């Protein structure tokens, strides 16, 4: 996570603007909740899924901010039977637009990893 420091061209010596990578991560994680059909990412240890996807949590986002640009790496789950391709393209376009307008940064790249597919209804486990 890096930070961005930039002075607007018309500041007249009033100071600069610093946007932390953590702030961009939180903005992106909140923006992804505005879309339907997307859940939290499955937790992983050494690349192996541990437990299931955490639908109560948002997507996991990491941001790399350099100058006035940022790239995002997003991990999420998609509701089955939605198209993974269509859902991730919608999410990518939404993040490019929404995070850009809320942070003032230019989002140059959004990498999305789908960690799981989840059913529309929550599964309940029963002992038989």
UniProtKB/TrEMBL annotation:
Pfam families: Asp23. It comes from the Bacteria. Belongs to the asp23 family. This is Asp23/Gls24 family envelope stress response protein.
């Amino acid at each position: 996570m890096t930070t961005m420091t930039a002075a607007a061209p018309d500041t007249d010596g009033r100071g600069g603007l610093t946007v932390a990578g953590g702030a961009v991560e939180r903005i992106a994680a909140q923006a992804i909740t505005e879309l339907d059909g997307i859940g939290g990412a499955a937790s992983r240890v050494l690349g192996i899924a541990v437990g299931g996807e955490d639908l109560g949590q948002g997507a996991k986002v990491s941001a790399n901010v350099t100058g006035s640009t940022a790239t995002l790496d997003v991990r999420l789950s998609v509701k089955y039977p939605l198209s993974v391709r269509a859902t991730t393209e919608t999410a990518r376009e939404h993040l490019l637009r929404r995070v850009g307008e809320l942070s003032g940064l230019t989002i140059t790249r959004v990498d999305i990893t789908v960690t799981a597919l989840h059913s529309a209804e929550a599964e309940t486990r029963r002992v038989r």
